Protein backbone atom coordinates (compact mmCIF):
# COMPACT_ATOMS: atom_id res chain seq x y z
CA UNK A 1 0.00 0.00 0.00
CA UNK A 2 1.29 3.43 -0.97
CA UNK A 3 1.06 6.49 1.21
CA UNK A 4 -1.85 7.91 -0.84
CA UNK A 5 -3.35 4.66 -2.15
CA UNK A 6 -6.96 4.94 -3.27
CA UNK A 7 -6.86 8.72 -3.45
CA UNK A 8 -7.35 11.03 -6.43
CA UNK A 9 -5.21 14.13 -6.94
CA UNK A 10 -5.99 17.19 -9.06
CA UNK A 11 -2.69 18.76 -10.18
CA UNK A 12 -2.39 22.00 -12.15
CA UNK A 13 0.72 22.92 -14.11
CA UNK A 14 1.27 19.20 -14.52
CA UNK A 15 2.89 19.09 -17.96
CA UNK A 16 6.47 19.58 -16.77
CA UNK A 17 8.68 20.86 -13.98
CA UNK A 18 7.37 20.71 -10.44
CA UNK A 19 3.83 19.86 -11.53
CA UNK A 20 4.91 16.77 -13.43
CA UNK A 21 7.15 15.72 -10.57
CA UNK A 22 4.28 16.07 -8.07
CA UNK A 23 1.87 14.10 -10.25
CA UNK A 24 4.31 11.25 -10.77
CA UNK A 25 5.37 11.13 -7.12
CA UNK A 26 1.76 10.93 -5.95
CA UNK A 27 1.08 8.22 -8.53
CA UNK A 28 4.10 6.25 -7.32
CA UNK A 29 2.43 6.19 -3.91
CA UNK A 30 -0.95 5.04 -5.20
CA UNK A 31 -2.96 8.08 -6.30
CA UNK A 32 -4.84 8.45 -9.56
CA UNK A 33 -4.18 11.79 -11.22
CA UNK A 34 -6.20 14.53 -12.90
CA UNK A 35 -3.44 16.47 -14.69
CA UNK A 36 -4.09 19.93 -16.10
CA UNK A 37 -1.91 22.41 -17.97
CA UNK A 38 -2.30 25.36 -20.33
CA UNK A 39 0.07 23.82 -22.91
CA UNK A 40 0.56 27.14 -24.68
CA UNK A 41 2.81 30.17 -24.43
CA UNK A 42 1.95 33.57 -22.97
CA UNK A 43 3.26 36.48 -25.04
CA UNK A 44 4.44 38.47 -22.02
CA UNK A 45 6.43 35.59 -20.52
CA UNK A 46 9.93 35.46 -21.97
CA UNK A 47 10.49 31.70 -21.95
CA UNK A 48 8.56 28.85 -23.60
CA UNK A 49 5.86 27.22 -21.52
CA UNK A 50 4.85 23.57 -21.67
CA UNK A 51 3.48 22.06 -24.90
CA UNK A 52 0.77 19.42 -25.39
CA UNK A 53 3.38 16.70 -25.84
CA UNK A 54 4.75 17.56 -22.39
CA UNK A 55 1.37 16.81 -20.85
CA UNK A 56 1.27 13.57 -22.83
CA UNK A 57 4.64 12.63 -21.33
CA UNK A 58 3.34 13.30 -17.83
CA UNK A 59 0.43 10.96 -18.56
CA UNK A 60 2.83 8.30 -19.80
CA UNK A 61 4.94 8.56 -16.66
CA UNK A 62 1.89 8.33 -14.41
CA UNK A 63 0.58 5.30 -16.28
CA UNK A 64 4.01 3.69 -15.98
CA UNK A 65 3.47 3.61 -12.21
CA UNK A 66 0.31 1.56 -12.71
CA UNK A 67 -2.05 4.40 -11.79
CA UNK A 68 -4.71 5.98 -13.98
CA UNK A 69 -4.61 9.54 -15.28
CA UNK A 70 -7.00 11.96 -16.95
CA UNK A 71 -5.44 14.97 -18.71
CA UNK A 72 -6.91 18.24 -19.89
CA UNK A 73 -5.56 21.38 -21.49
CA UNK A 74 -7.05 24.21 -19.45
CA UNK A 75 -6.15 27.76 -18.48
CA UNK A 76 -6.08 28.25 -14.70
CA UNK A 77 -7.01 31.90 -15.26
CA UNK A 78 -10.43 30.68 -16.40
CA UNK A 79 -12.45 28.97 -13.65
CA UNK A 80 -14.85 27.56 -16.21
CA UNK A 81 -12.09 25.73 -18.05
CA UNK A 82 -10.75 24.35 -14.78
CA UNK A 83 -14.18 23.21 -13.68
CA UNK A 84 -14.68 21.36 -16.95
CA UNK A 85 -11.28 19.70 -16.63
CA UNK A 86 -12.00 18.63 -13.07
CA UNK A 87 -15.43 17.34 -14.03
CA UNK A 88 -13.87 15.09 -16.66
CA UNK A 89 -11.62 13.60 -14.01
CA UNK A 90 -14.47 13.18 -11.55
CA UNK A 91 -16.49 11.37 -14.20
CA UNK A 92 -13.65 8.86 -14.46
CA UNK A 93 -12.64 8.50 -10.82
CA UNK A 94 -15.74 9.51 -8.86
CA UNK A 95 -13.92 11.30 -6.04
CA UNK A 96 -11.33 13.94 -5.16
CA UNK A 97 -8.97 13.86 -2.19
CA UNK A 98 -5.92 15.99 -3.02
CA UNK A 99 -5.55 19.36 -4.74
CA UNK A 100 -2.08 20.51 -5.80
CA UNK A 101 -2.34 24.07 -7.14
CA UNK A 102 1.05 24.23 -8.80
CA UNK A 103 0.59 26.19 -12.06
CA UNK A 104 2.71 29.33 -12.16
CA UNK A 105 4.83 31.57 -14.34
CA UNK A 106 7.71 33.98 -13.68
CA UNK A 107 7.39 37.37 -15.36
CA UNK A 108 10.92 38.68 -14.82
CA UNK A 109 11.88 40.83 -17.81
CA UNK A 110 8.42 40.25 -19.28
CA UNK A 111 7.16 42.55 -21.99
CA UNK A 112 5.16 44.63 -22.14
CA UNK A 113 5.84 45.04 -18.42
CA UNK A 114 2.28 45.73 -17.27
CA UNK A 115 0.95 42.80 -19.27
CA UNK A 116 3.57 40.63 -17.57
CA UNK A 117 2.27 41.91 -14.22
CA UNK A 118 -1.30 40.96 -15.18
CA UNK A 119 -0.43 37.54 -16.59
CA UNK A 120 1.60 36.59 -13.53
CA UNK A 121 -1.07 37.71 -11.05
CA UNK A 122 -3.83 36.01 -13.03
CA UNK A 123 -1.90 32.76 -13.40
CA UNK A 124 -0.20 32.44 -10.03
CA UNK A 125 -2.69 33.96 -7.62
CA UNK A 126 -6.06 33.95 -9.37
CA UNK A 127 -5.23 30.59 -10.98
CA UNK A 128 -4.39 29.03 -7.62
CA UNK A 129 -7.62 30.33 -6.11
CA UNK A 130 -9.59 29.07 -9.13
CA UNK A 131 -8.10 25.58 -8.86
CA UNK A 132 -8.89 25.32 -5.18
CA UNK A 133 -12.34 26.80 -5.37
CA UNK A 134 -13.60 24.61 -8.22
CA UNK A 135 -12.41 21.65 -6.12
CA UNK A 136 -13.94 22.66 -2.79
CA UNK A 137 -17.46 21.30 -3.45
CA UNK A 138 -15.95 17.85 -4.06
CA UNK A 139 -13.75 17.63 -0.97
CA UNK A 140 -14.63 15.96 2.29
CA UNK A 141 -13.05 15.25 5.63
CA UNK A 142 -9.49 14.03 5.21
CA UNK A 143 -8.85 15.95 2.00
CA UNK A 144 -5.63 17.91 1.52
CA UNK A 145 -5.08 21.14 -0.39
CA UNK A 146 -1.51 22.13 -1.24
CA UNK A 147 -0.62 25.42 -2.91
CA UNK A 148 2.78 26.40 -4.25
CA UNK A 149 4.13 29.66 -2.93
CA UNK A 150 7.78 30.69 -3.06
CA UNK A 151 10.54 31.72 -0.70
CA UNK A 152 10.35 34.96 -2.69
CA UNK A 153 7.07 35.64 -0.88
CA UNK A 154 8.92 35.73 2.43
CA UNK A 155 11.69 38.14 1.44
CA UNK A 156 11.92 41.80 2.39
CA UNK A 157 11.93 43.52 -0.98
CA UNK A 158 11.50 47.08 0.27
CA UNK A 159 14.74 48.15 -1.39
CA UNK A 160 13.98 46.09 -4.50
CA UNK A 161 17.57 44.83 -4.55
CA UNK A 162 16.43 41.43 -5.73
CA UNK A 163 16.35 39.54 -9.04
CA UNK A 164 12.66 40.35 -9.51
CA UNK A 165 12.92 44.14 -9.44
CA UNK A 166 10.62 44.83 -12.40
CA UNK A 167 6.81 44.63 -12.83
CA UNK A 168 6.70 40.96 -13.86
CA UNK A 169 9.14 39.99 -11.14
CA UNK A 170 7.36 41.96 -8.43
CA UNK A 171 4.07 40.43 -9.57
CA UNK A 172 5.63 37.03 -8.92
CA UNK A 173 6.56 38.03 -5.38
CA UNK A 174 3.17 39.64 -4.74
CA UNK A 175 1.27 36.64 -6.12
CA UNK A 176 3.14 34.24 -3.88
CA UNK A 177 2.54 36.44 -0.84
CA UNK A 178 -1.14 36.43 -1.72
CA UNK A 179 -1.13 32.63 -1.85
CA UNK A 180 0.44 32.48 1.61
CA UNK A 181 -2.27 34.69 3.12
CA UNK A 182 -5.07 32.96 1.22
CA UNK A 183 -3.99 29.51 2.38
CA UNK A 184 -3.71 30.67 5.99
CA UNK A 185 -7.27 32.01 6.03
CA UNK A 186 -8.63 29.09 4.00
CA UNK A 187 -7.10 26.58 6.40
CA UNK A 188 -8.79 28.35 9.31
CA UNK A 189 -12.20 28.05 7.66
CA UNK A 190 -11.75 24.44 6.53
CA UNK A 191 -10.31 23.01 9.73
CA UNK A 192 -13.71 22.33 11.37
CA UNK A 193 -14.62 20.29 8.27
CA UNK A 194 -11.52 18.12 8.55
CA UNK A 195 -10.05 19.51 5.32
CA UNK A 196 -6.44 20.64 5.44
CA UNK A 197 -4.76 23.44 3.48
CA UNK A 198 -1.04 24.16 3.40
CA UNK A 199 1.42 26.17 1.33
CA UNK A 200 4.87 25.03 0.26
CA UNK A 201 7.50 27.68 -0.38
CA UNK A 202 10.35 26.40 -2.57
CA UNK A 203 13.58 28.22 -3.21
CA UNK A 204 15.20 28.15 -6.67
CA UNK A 205 14.11 24.86 -8.23
CA UNK A 206 15.79 23.22 -11.21
CA UNK A 207 12.98 23.59 -13.74
CA UNK A 208 12.57 25.34 -17.12
CA UNK A 209 11.34 28.43 -15.26
CA UNK A 210 14.67 28.84 -13.52
CA UNK A 211 16.77 27.64 -16.43
CA UNK A 212 15.61 30.38 -18.76
CA UNK A 213 17.09 33.44 -20.45
CA UNK A 214 14.98 35.98 -18.49
CA UNK A 215 16.00 34.40 -15.20
CA UNK A 216 19.67 34.39 -16.19
CA UNK A 217 19.42 38.10 -16.98
CA UNK A 218 17.68 38.78 -13.67
CA UNK A 219 20.48 37.14 -11.71
CA UNK A 220 23.26 38.57 -13.89
CA UNK A 221 22.15 42.09 -14.88
CA UNK A 222 25.80 42.98 -15.34
CA UNK A 223 25.99 40.84 -18.49
CA UNK A 224 24.23 41.48 -21.79
CA UNK A 225 23.64 37.84 -22.68
CA UNK A 226 24.33 35.68 -19.61
CA UNK A 227 24.36 31.91 -19.94
CA UNK A 228 23.45 29.18 -17.48
CA UNK A 229 27.12 28.90 -16.59
CA UNK A 230 27.16 32.63 -15.79
CA UNK A 231 23.99 32.55 -13.68
CA UNK A 232 24.32 29.35 -11.69
CA UNK A 233 27.04 30.62 -9.32
CA UNK A 234 24.75 33.54 -8.47
CA UNK A 235 21.68 31.33 -7.89
CA UNK A 236 23.28 30.44 -4.58
CA UNK A 237 22.52 33.90 -3.18
CA UNK A 238 18.99 32.65 -2.45
CA UNK A 239 20.04 29.78 -0.16
CA UNK A 240 21.96 29.51 3.11
CA UNK A 241 23.10 26.01 2.20
CA UNK A 242 25.78 26.02 -0.47
CA UNK A 243 23.68 24.95 -3.46
CA UNK A 244 22.36 26.82 -6.50
CA UNK A 245 18.90 25.18 -6.40
CA UNK A 246 16.88 22.23 -5.19
CA UNK A 247 15.36 19.58 -7.47
CA UNK A 248 11.62 19.17 -8.21
CA UNK A 249 11.70 15.85 -6.34
CA UNK A 250 12.62 17.71 -3.15
CA UNK A 251 9.38 19.64 -3.37
CA UNK A 252 7.39 16.59 -4.45
CA UNK A 253 8.40 14.71 -1.31
CA UNK A 254 6.97 17.55 0.77
CA UNK A 255 3.79 17.52 -1.35
CA UNK A 256 3.45 13.78 -0.80
CA UNK A 257 3.82 14.15 2.96
CA UNK A 258 1.21 16.91 3.15
CA UNK A 259 -1.14 14.87 0.96
CA UNK A 260 -0.77 11.74 3.07
CA UNK A 261 -2.34 10.75 6.37
CA UNK A 262 1.10 11.17 7.93
CA UNK A 263 0.26 14.89 7.99
CA UNK A 264 -3.38 14.40 8.99
CA UNK A 265 -3.19 17.11 11.67
CA UNK A 266 -0.96 19.52 9.75
CA UNK A 267 -2.87 22.51 8.39
CA UNK A 268 -2.26 26.21 7.87
CA UNK A 269 1.44 25.46 7.44
CA UNK A 270 3.84 27.67 5.47
CA UNK A 271 6.34 24.92 4.74
CA UNK A 272 9.68 26.14 3.42
CA UNK A 273 11.79 23.84 1.25
CA UNK A 274 14.44 26.47 0.73
CA UNK A 275 17.86 25.14 1.78
CA UNK A 276 17.83 27.72 4.54
CA UNK A 277 17.03 30.66 2.29
CA UNK A 278 14.66 32.20 4.81
CA UNK A 279 17.43 32.15 7.40
CA UNK A 280 19.39 34.65 5.32
CA UNK A 281 16.60 37.20 5.59
CA UNK A 282 15.22 36.98 9.13
CA UNK A 283 16.49 36.62 12.68
CA UNK A 284 14.88 34.09 14.99
CA UNK A 285 11.65 35.28 16.59
CA UNK A 286 9.62 33.48 19.23
TrEMBL record:
CDD domains attached to this UniProt entry: SDR_c (cd05233)
UniProt entry keywords in alphabetical sequence: NAD, Oxidoreductase
Spans through the membrane: none
InterPro entries attached to this UniProt entry: NAD(P)-bd_dom_sf, SDR_fam, SDR_subfam_1
Pfam families: adh_short_C2
Gene Ontology terms for molecular function: oxidoreductase activity
Family indicated by similarity: Belongs to the short-chain dehydrogenases/reductases (SDR) family.
Protein name, per record: NAD(P)-dependent oxidoreductase
